[in-house]
Amino acid sequence: MKQKMKEEHATYQNMFWLFMIGNVLGVILEGLWCLIRTGYWETHVVSMWGPFCIIYGFGAVGFYLGSVWLKGKSPVTQFVAFSLIAAVFEYVCSWVLEYGLHMKAWDYRRHFLNIEGRVSLKMTVLWGTLGVAFSYWLVPLIDQMFDRMQGRFWKAACSCMSIFMAINLAFTALCLVRWRDRHEGIAPQNYVEQTIDEVYDDYKMEKRFCEWSLYLTIVL
Question: Core-most of 8, 66, 113, 213, by most CB within 10 Å?
Fold first, then answer.
């Protein structure tokens, strides 16, 4: 019965709100970590508008769906599964950034046992541990939250925010492509690209995506 209830909770609306909460919490937690480690706040976002880090949003949804899939499995099995899934996801995201945009947003080459700086043993163990903790302690609270976030208001809000995020992420992609193209000496081809270059120049992009960097040469 509990398994069936969890599967019923895995609707688009619920997963969207979990995605959005993960986006914002990821930014807050990383900012706090930077404050503790370096003494100053640093905002890590992956969108042009709003305090959103979509990698954490996808991570929250992935952990929840993983907890449904792994329900009843031992903690060791869950740890291994969450670790492998997170490592593959992180590797693929890093690969797409490098070969699609010629950029990188993280580098684990200083970590012990890493693969091309994309994934490392340290981070894989961390994601696995977080996945197990998420499954055992957070999922019950999240299910209670889902039960309260129903009705016409939440449905309408989900539709509006879904449209906003689709536009936000599409625009973010355009700005990132222009940032890369400017770096590679490619002139704007139309009015939209010219406007992006004027409004969101390199300085603003570097400030917005403070952890990101562009490769000095085109990656073939």
Answer: 66
Q: Over the chain, what is the mean pLDDT? A: 92
pLDDT tens for 99-147 read: 999 999 999 999 999 999 999 999 999 999 999 999 999 999 999 999 9
Question: For the chain, what is the domain count?
Answer: 1
77 within a domain of the structure (yes/no): yes
pTM of the full structure: 0.90
Q: In which domain, by residue range, is 166 found?
A: 2-214
Please give the average per-residue pLDDT across 56-72, as a whole number.
94
- Tell me the C-alpha distance between 120 and 83, whole Å: 11
| 41 domain residue, yes or no | yes
Cα separations in angstroms, 159 against 19, 155, 156, 171 = 14, 6, 5, 19
In a domain, 219, yes or no: no
